[in-house]
Design a protein that fits this description.
Shape: elongated
Radius of gyration: 18 Å
Number of strands: 0
Distance between the termini: 46 Å
Largest sheet: none
Order of helices and strands: HHHHHH
Length: 93
């Protein structure tokens, strides 16, 4: 009976969504600040899920270069965003 009268507070959901969008914007802004090649490597891995080999072939660079660029991107983003935010935004990296 008490559950019938319960109405979730819309402001709590709205506030959560606003914060989520703000964090997503911060993350995307930081990614956009990466050097071009580093950003491209990071986005191919993150958005398309390509392997280092696939990225190397697509960009016509070596696999070690892909790995280096990816490691630098992760290090840079962790520094700028902090470990906690980075880990929650990219749990599989």
């Amino acid at each position: 009976e008490s559950l019938k009268n319960f109405k979730p507070k819309p402001s709590a959901n709205t506030d959560h969504l606003v914060r989520e969008h703000q964090l997503a914007k911060i993350i995307e802004d930081e990614i956009a600040l990466l050097p071009d090649r580093m950003r491209e490597v990071f986005e191919l891995k993150r958005k398309l899920g390509l392997s280092h080999k696939e990225i190397a072939e697509r960009m016509n660079i070596s696999e070690p270069t892909v790995k280096t660029q990816m490691n630098r991107a992760i290090k840079t983003l962790k520094t700028r965003l902090g470990d906690t935010l980075f880990s929650s935004a990219f749990p599989f990296l």
